[in-house]
Amino acid sequence: MAKKTLNIVESGYRAVIEEQDDTILWLVAAMQAAGAEHTVVLRGNAVNYAVKGQGAPSLSVGEWKQSQAPKMDRDVGDLIEKRNIPVYVLEEDLAERGIEKAELIGGLKFLPRSALPGLCAEHAIVSLW
Amino acid sequence: MAKYLLIESRDPFESNDTAFAYELATGLAGAGNEVTLFLVQNGVLPARNGARADGLLAVMKAGVKVLADDFSLAERGIGNARLRAGITPAPIETVVDHLEQGHKTLWH
Amino acid sequence: MAKTLAFALMDPPYESENLTTAFRLLDAAARRGHTIKVFAYEGAAALAFTRQAPHPNPVHGKNLAEENHPTTKDQVAALLASAEKHGGKVDWVNCGMCVDERGVGEFVEGTRRGSPADFHAFCEAADGVLAIPTK
């Protein structure tokens, strides 16, 4: 059985348009497909990934136009539904940003910051991204 | 209980997100774990005696061992005499020590 | 006793002090004869790119030789050599898609192209794991 790995993801919208993915959520999904056992915690600005209905228009430069613009709420939903990766969101980080739970996609687990040490204890590897 | 090494590369003057790392270190210690905070790069700046470092002081008060990377200190001209009491200079090999022993090692 | 240590790097060359620290750490691990596994992801896929070239420093009045400008490709090559000298080894994997999108497909001999599956395998095999994220 694979080592349980906790990925605490804070970086939000870094190179997401250029990569058409969040590169950490993508990495976690790819590793899960290779047999890893991952859990994700969204904190900091990354909590915004869970907001329903987001998505920038495609980037265009001159005649070049992006055809696969990313949608982070869809990608977070896919982690939960298609990859069976539990995704937690830190409650205080949502509140700081004025994000109501009703604005979020389904399937998330909510965690107070004070519970993070306990979640760390349940995983063999803990990484901050 | 487990042993953790948190590596803090950021400083509280440029990034208020150091509060998260300090809070995590304190929380892990409060949960009974043995926690070391290794300050590196600009993360050593609040280690200078007299710097505004309430967050770091709280971490130390919580029983977390705070070390400061000697290379980063030298790079920034923070000699041992200018270090805040309770913070010890340490070589980068310290991180290897923790990894060798399988301690959960996190970089912020 | 030699251990297996796994690292993920993300920063590209010349943009962050994270890499200075990373190479110091890797060097320290190599000197102890450990098996070191590095997953060079995102910008770090360019660390081993062999077409990096040093340059002089006109601001400081130094010619090419005098400036002796560091290149990460040389640091990667030196790391591999050091590990071998001390009885260990380095398995340095450049994430393939990251290499492709950056056009850095010529890399230091002894490093190789790979994928997230390699990082998963590294984590499974490792006594200690450290991911150094980019900002």
Quick rundown:
Helix content of chain B is 32%, strand content 23%. Chain B has 108 residues and is an alpha/beta fold.
What is the strand and helix layout of this fold?
The complex is a heterotrimer of chains A (129), B (108) and C (135).
Chain A lengths: L3 E6 L6 H4 L3 H11 L3 E6 L17 E2 L2 E2 L6 H10 L5 E4 H6 L12 E3 L4 H6 L3 E4 L1
Parallel strand pairs in A: 1-2, 1-7, 2-5, 5-6
Antiparallel strand pairs in A: 3-4
Chain B lengths: L2 E6 L9 H13 L3 E6 L14 H8 L3 E5 H6 L11 E4 L2 H8 L3 E4 L1
Parallel strand pairs in B: 1-2, 1-5, 2-3, 3-4
Helix pairs in contact in B: 1-2
Chain C lengths: L3 E6 L7 H15 L3 E6 L23 H4 L4 H14 L3 E7 H7 L8 E4 L1 H10 L2 E5 L3
Parallel strand pairs in C: 1-2, 1-5, 2-3, 3-4
Kindly describe this structure.
The complex is a heterotrimer of chains A (129), B (108) and C (135). Chain A is α/β, with parallel strands linked by helices. Chain A has five helices and seven strands, in the order E-H-H-E-E-E-H-E-H-E-H-E. Chain B has 108 residues and is of the alpha/beta class. Chain B is 32% helix and 23% strand. Chain B has a five-stranded parallel β-sheet with strand order 4-3-2-1-5, with helices on both faces. In chain B, helix 1 links the parallel strand 1 and strand 2. In chain C, helix 1 runs parallel beside helix 3. Chain C has a five-stranded parallel β-sheet with strand order 4-3-2-1-5, sandwiched between helices. Chain C is built from five helices and five strands; from the N terminus they run E-H-E-H-H-E-H-E-H-E. Chains B and C meet through helix 4 of B and helix 1 and strand 5 of C.
List keywords for this structure.
heterotrimer, A: 129 residues, alpha/beta, five-stranded parallel β-sheet, two-stranded antiparallel sheet, 7 strands, C: 135 residues, 21% strand
- Overall structural class of chain C, as computed from helix and strand content, comes to alpha/beta
State the assembly state of the protein chains: heterotrimer
- Computed CA radius of gyration of chain C, to the nearest angstrom: 15 Å
Largest sheet of chain C: 5 strands, parallel
Structural class of chain B: alpha/beta
Mean pLDDT of chain C: 98
Note the run of SSEs of chain B as H and E: EHEHEHEHE
Distance between the termini of chain C: 34 Å
Strand content of chain B: 15-25%
Q: In order across it, which strands form the biggest sheet of chain B?
A: 4-3-2-1-5
Shape of chain B: globular
In total, the number of strands of chain B is 5
Total helical segments of chain B: 4
